[in-house]
What does this fold into?
Amino acid sequence: MTPIIIFGTGDIAQLAHYYFSNDSEHQVSAFTVDAEYITMHELYALPVVPFSEIVRRYPPDRHKLFVALSYAKLNEVRKQKYLAAKALGYRLVSYVSSRSTVLTQYPIGENCFILEDNTIQPFVTIGNNVTLWSGNHIGHHSIIHDHCFIASHVVVSGGVEIEESCFIGVNATLRDHIKVGKNCVIGAGALLLSDAPPEGVYVGAATERSKVPSTRLRKI
It folds into this structure.
């Protein structure tokens, strides 16, 4: 079992602990966050260590690291901690669920978090520090660049290129052979049918409340 340190103590870090502990060859040794964000000294009976002390207490020649953070500030926070860990000499591990279908012949990047029920078709390229939440379809010959976060049940059709630091919301659909520029936000339920220039925001239409109250529906 390879010992790893998890950066973070929030929901995603707790999920990372669960997945690594139950479905990987890694063993979590400790958690780490910046000293000013420490609110507990133990989590799941493991120490929570200031990031400034991590090299001394868990040296990178004997431990690997996983940055378990969300898409805050359009993935920038996770990106900066990923780069900081690498600068300290740590190797970043990825988690790929045994319950996902990974058919690509290309190696998945480091510090990726790929949860259950993802379908990753042949010839897909996935960069570093990419999160694929559960239940996505990543079509053949697609490219997902570094530091992206793709939420659940997203359909990425074949030949799509998603550039660095994008966020794709739940149930979004991307048609085939389009390019999503750097730092784009594709909102929940959005339908993208053409290229998206960098820093674009695409918001799906929300369902409006009916004027008829539920108490007047006769067939439900």
Notes: The chain is about 15% helix and 25% strand.
